[in-house]
Amino acid sequence: MTPVLPVTLPILADETVTSFTSRLAAENGSPCVTDFCRDIGLDWNGIINGKSDALAALARFSGMALDTLQANSIQLVKQGNYLVRSQEVNRALLCRTRVRVCPECIEGDLRDRGRYGSARRASWQLNTIRNCEYHGIPLVELPREKYSADSYDFCVLVDRHIDFVRSQGIPNAPRTNSRLERYIVGRLNNVRKYRWLDHRPLYVVARTCEMLGVLLLFGKAVKVSECSEHQLWEAGEVGFDALTKGPNGLIDSLQNFRRADEDGGSSFGADLGPFYRWLTVVSGQPAYAPVADIVSRYVFENYPVQKGGEILGRTCKERLLYPRDLAGRHLRLKPHIFELALRELEFGSTNAETGKLEFPRYIASHDLPRIKSEAKNLVLECRAREILRVTERMFHGLVRERLITPQGRLSEQQSAVFREGDYRTPGRSSNGKLGG
Ligand SMILES: [Zn+2]
């Protein structure tokens, strides 16, 4: 295609179309890209939003192939959602008027192409990218422009703020790029590596990694709004490590926050802190459904949610867990019989510090029938005497002779408990009376 403009230049491989237009304007002697577009009849807002007509006109003027311009554009697909190099990005991930640059890349651009040679890389427009993919140093944010349209006149902005960029200095000890950053840049270049993550839109991956990482790294009490950019960068790395293992990595991470002890009214909301609070806000969006599905299922399986209860918009179809006391009441068992049944079925475990037997906080619904059946076999001493039709003295004689054995005594004050099979055994006749 023969270009219309007197001066033309090629768009760089990872440069955005607005940055290219900004350079084109400057190289053709225009002090401002908005004026340049208006003067020659280009739709600057259309170019900013990646509209086909606007890009087609830009192709005619610049001589660049339309498909190249389309590939490098940031295209508004619906309110708040964009495509960046074919990847879905939302407003939370995309920084449009917040302009960040790599000081090293900029110096290289100016060396190679002169005063207006700096180019905005697509990856710099994603909030989760906080380091340069080439130099591994933190991106520097330029001072904000009064009018947001001016934020896209990239090479002019850099020229205006180059002293500011240089004054930020290049850190002596650059931090390396996080794995999450490398993954996102890879996705922009169509590299796919982790099946579960690869199937999620880029903005879902970025935010889920960061929010899970905030919980994993800083705990359940932290507020995301109080996290610094550096903390979010660290969190993204930790969350990404977990989520590369897919749903199991997510569930294993959440398990770390499930409290085994009983004090202090803990709940899934408190246990999962910032991650859960964030998820309640986004779980209605279809793109987050796979994450919300996994987390709601995890909550149903690990917390005593009632049938019909709603978690992240998902309904609990069947109660899977009961708090221990409620399980006993549900089975209509006296507390001591219920606990003894748990002990007989080996639900308890000995606390290493206190040496005391402790029972689980929650009882699974599928365990209730066997607890009920076990409890049916257990009776208190007075009931055992009644069944055997013996006096208290005779009964204790039988115990002393070990003809019948108590199954246990829950405390000093409580009566001993016997298992039905055991006290029916010793020489008992079919008419219910003791023989011999
Ligand atoms: Zn760089």
Report what the structure shows:
The protein is mainly α. It folds into four domains: 17-168, no CATH class; 192-315, no CATH class; 321-375, no CATH class; 377-424. It is 46% helix and 9% strand. The protein contains 20 helices and 14 strands. The chain has helices at residues 17-27, 33-40, 44-48, 52-62, 66-72, 103-113, 154-168, 179-188, 195-198, 202-218, 229-243, 247-255, 268-282, 289-302, 324-330, 335-344, 368-376, 381-388, 392-400, 420-424; strands at 74-78, 81-84, 87-90, 100-101, 140-141, 310-311, 314-315, 321-323, 349-350, 357-358, 362-364, 378-380, 406-408, 417-419. The strands form six sheets. Strands 1-2-3 form a three-stranded antiparallel β-sheet. Strands 12-14-13 form a three-stranded antiparallel β-sheet. Helix 12 (247-255) crosses helix 14 and helix 16 (335-344) crosses helix 17 (368-376). It is elongated and about 115 Å long. The N and C termini lie far apart (114 Å). Zinc ion binds at residues 102, 104-105, 132, 134-135.
Tally of DSSP helical segments: 20
SS content category? mainly alpha
Shape: elongated
Strand order of the largest sheet: 1-2-3
Q: Which helices and strands appear, and what pairs or packs with what?
A:
Layout: H1 17-27, H2 33-40, H3 44-48, H4 52-62, H5 66-72, E1 74-78, E2 81-84, E3 87-90, E4 100-101, H6 103-113, E5 140-141, H7 154-168, H8 179-188, H9 195-198, H10 202-218, H11 229-243, H12 247-255, H13 268-282, H14 289-302, E6 310-311, E7 314-315, E8 321-323, H15 324-330, H16 335-344, E9 349-350, E10 357-358, E11 362-364, H17 368-376, E12 378-380, H18 381-388, H19 392-400, E13 406-408, E14 417-419, H20 420-424
Antiparallel strand pairs: 1-2, 2-3, 4-5, 6-7, 8-11, 9-10, 12-14, 13-14
Helix pairs in contact: 10-11, 10-13, 12-14, 16-17
Bound molecules: zinc ion (ZN).
Zinc ion is lined by residues 102, 104-105, 132, 134-135.
